[in-house]
Amino acid sequence: MALSSIAVNSELALAGGLSLLLVGQILFGLISDLWGLFGTPKRMLNRFDLLAALCVIAGSALIIYSGGA
Fold this sequence. Notes:
Layout: H1 2-9, H2 13-35, H3 47-65
């Protein structure tokens, strides 16, 4: 919640909000792959999945926290 309010109140409000939306979609996709939600086949996560998620999260944090110059 705090990260969301920082993103909305920053100068890059739209970019911050969209980056948080992207992070949420990626994390939900990883969880649904792991647990096999919505009838999809269960798939174990590998290190590349986690690395990709970490890169997107780090990029989103850069967008949000570097917004105010």
